[in-house]
Design brief:
Blueprint lengths: L1 E5 L3 E4 L6 H13 L2 E6 L5 H12 L3 E3 L4 E5 L8 E3 L4 H11 L6 E4 L12 H4 L6 E3 L7 E4 L7 E4 L5 H13 L4 E6 L4 H13 L4 E4 L3 E4 L11 E3 L4 H14 E5 L12 H8 L3 E5 L2 E5 L7 E3 L7 H8 L5 E5 L11 H11 L3 E5 L2 E5 L8 E2 L5 H11 L6 E3 L12 H7 L3 E5 L1
Parallel strand pairs: 2-15, 3-14, 6-7, 10-11, 18-19, 22-23
Antiparallel strand pairs: 1-23, 1-24, 3-5, 4-5, 7-9, 8-9, 11-13, 12-13, 15-17, 16-17, 19-21, 20-21
The structure holds shikimate-3-phosphate and phosphoenolpyruvate.
Keywords: Amino-acid biosynthesis, Aromatic amino acid biosynthesis, Cytoplasm, Transferase
Catalytic activity: 3-phosphoshikimate + phosphoenolpyruvate = 5-O-(1-carboxyvinyl)-3-phosphoshikimate + phosphate
Pfam families: EPSP_synthase
Length: 422
């Protein structure tokens, strides 16, 4: 599917969907801890639905059309394959979790996840007595436990997601104190989210400055009342806030300002560049204004890169976004997809070492955009289109379903003339 967007103003109120990172973690926790868990405001993007199906394949019952009611007796697989869809987090979260069980379970998926490296899996899981079959560095592969909890050392420079999976799995099977020693951790806020969800379920894990994580079952508490509400998604919000900042006025009522989500950092960027912004009890409003070029290190919030590239394209002067090395193994190679987007829009940019340099301008060229089958590229390209010199067509527009299925509906609600074409 393609999206054809006519440039124009973006004005309105947008209710941002639930955080997919938190929804996926909530499903993992609800599976692991025996009993019933109520998840309010769970998201329904493709990645969240993949996580929901995975816990069902691992034996949980999920019912409910409002709050999700998850009932679990622990891991009791009803299938020998669990399917992560295209979700990197679901693959890396549920591979160690599936390995808690003694039957062979294959982690399958489709699309871009088949190319994304599953770094650490072959180094770590066998040390925990998990056997691996058919592992060639990528999905699909088969794990067979039961995992034996032991202290391990993990190198995580590519992705933090396997560490999240290990934290969930080791908290579920540790019977004595153990440690996970971590080198090269990036995307630290995502580990904070993991620790927050574990703590919500009574599994308190401490760490020494993200280098050594201490899991001590003596510190665990029984979480009798298990209910949690998923915050709105700052990653999805970042695109809408940038759209307001460059093309009109947007109000987002449902964001949690003290969130620990990585992409809440968009707020710091908007403040730094002098965006016209009000934050009140009822939400955050951002209006189009002149904004200064900025310098920002996005290594810990890599999903912000596409939206930041869109924002920088309309700031005065030059901007620098560091952390390019975090972009190679996402749904697309985002160094390639972001720079191609900038190039097609006629924006002057360069990549030097780990930094993307962008020179802002008043308007961008209109063009045919390759969405790279990557939700964040499609959304960033759609936002830039608001300030193009003519209509823009973006391929693979349906990719937005991975995190923000209503993205184009919300654009239309904000007055954007946007057509979806086969
Ligand atoms: O744990 C998570 O929810 C995520 C962690 C990040 O990945 P990396 O740890 O691979 O950077 C992020 O890019 C991804 O979209 C979601
Ligand atoms: C990279 C992303 O997700 P994941 O790694 O979970 O597929 C993303 O949402 O941008």
């Amino acid at each position: 599917m393609k999206a054809r967007i006519v440039p124009g103003s973006f004005n309105g109120t947008v209710n941002i969907p639930p955080s997919k990172s938190l929804t996926q973690r909530a499903y993992a926790a609800a599976l692991l801890y025996v009993g019933t868990t109520l998840i309010h405001n769970a998201g329904n993007s493709a990645d969240e639905e993949a996580a929901r199906h995975m816990i069902q394949q691992l034996g949980a019952t999920v019912t409910g059309s409002g709050p999700m009611v998850v009932t679990s007796k622990g891991i009791a697989p009803v299938s020998d394959t669990i399917d992560c869809g295209e979700s990197g987090l679901a693959a890396r979260l549920f591979a160690p979790i599936a390995a808690l069980h003694n039957s062979p379970i294959t982690i399958a998926g489709h699309g871009s996840i088949l190319r994304r490296p599953m770094e650490g899996v072959a180094d770590i899981l066998p040390l925990l007595s998990v056997s691996l079959q058919g592992f060639n560095g990528h999905i699909p592969f088969t794990v067979q436990g039961p995992m034996q909890a032991r202290s391990v050392a993990v190198h995580t420079s590519g992705s933090s997601q396997l560490l999240s999976g290990l934290l969930f799995a080791l908290c579920a099977c540790a019977t004595a104190p153990i440690t996970i020693t971590v080198a090269g951790l990036q995307s630290k806020p995502y580990i904070d989210l993991t620790l927050d969800v574990l703590a919500h379920f009574g599994r308190h894990v401490s760490h020494d400055n993200y280098k050594v994580f201490h899991i001590d079952p003596a510190r665990f508490e029984y979480a009798a009342h298990r209910e949690l509400t998923i915050e709105a998604d700052w990653s999805s919000a970042s695109c809408m806030l940038v759209a307001g900042a460059i093309a009109g006025e947007v109000t987002v009522p449902n964001l949690f300002m003290n969130s620990r989500q990585a992409d809440r950092a968009i707020l710091d960027v908007l403040r730094t560049i002098g965006a016209d912004m009000d934050i009140t009890d009822t939400g955050i409003t951002v209006r189009r204004s002149r904004m200064q070029g900025f310098e920002f290190d996005a290594a810990n919030c890599p999903d912000l890169f596409p939206a930041l590239a869109a924002l920088a394209s309309f700031c005065d002067g030059n901007s620098q976004v560091t952390g390019v090395h975090r972009l190679f193994h996402k749904e697309s190679n985002r160094v390639e997809s972001i720079t191609e987007m900038l190039w097609r829009y006629g924006v002057t940019f360069s990549v030097e070492d780990d930094t993307l340099y962008i020179e802002g301008r008043e308007k961008v060229q209109y063009s045919y955009m390759d969405g790279y089958k990557d939700h964040r590229i499609v959304m960033a390209a759609a936002v830039c289109a608001l300030r193009a010199k003519g209509p823009v067509t973006i391929s693979c527009a349906d990719a937005v379903g991975k995190s923000y299925p209503r993205f184009f509906d919300d654009m239309r609600l904000c007055g954007v003339a946007c057509e979806l074409l086969p």
